[in-house]
Amino acid sequence: SSPDKKLEEEELQNLERVLIETDLGVDISMTLVDMLRHKRFSSREEVKAFIKQELLKRFSSSGRELGEKGKPRVVLFVGINGSGKTTSIAKIASLLQKKGKTVLLAAGDTFRAAAIEQLSIWAERLSVPIVRHKMGADPAAVAHDACESAKAKGIDYVLVDTAGRLHNQNALMEELKKVVRVISARVGEDALEKLLVIDGNAGQNSFFQARHFQESVRLDGIIITKLDGSAKGGVVVSIEEELTIPVKWVGLGESVDDIVPFSPDVFLSALLE
Amino acid sequence: TISEKFQVIFKTLRGHHRISEANITDSLREIRKALLEADVSYTIVRDFIKEVKEKSLGEKVLDLVSPGQMMTKIIYDEMVRFLSMGACELPLDRSFQTLMIVGLQGCGKTTTCAKLAFWFKEKGLRTLLVGADAQRPAAKEQLRTLAGQTDVDFFTLDEEKNPLAIVHAALKKAKDDNLYHRMVVDTAGRLHVDEELMKELTLLSQSARPDHILLTTDAMLGQDSVKTGEAFSRYLNLTGIILTKMDGDARGGAAMSMAAVTGKSVQFVGTGEKISQFEPFYPDRMASRILG
Ligand SMILES: Nc1nc2c(ncn2[C@@H]2O[C@H](COP(=O)(O)OP(=O)(O)OP(=O)(O)O)[C@@H](O)[C@H]2O)c(=O)[nH]1
Ligand SMILES: Nc1nc2c(ncn2[C@@H]2O[C@H](COP(=O)(O)OP(=O)(O)OP(=O)(O)O)[C@@H](O)[C@H]2O)c(=O)[nH]1
Ligand SMILES: [Mg+2]
Ligand SMILES: [Mg+2]
Question: Which positions of chain A have pLDDT values less than 70?
Answer without folding.
Answer: 1-2, 61
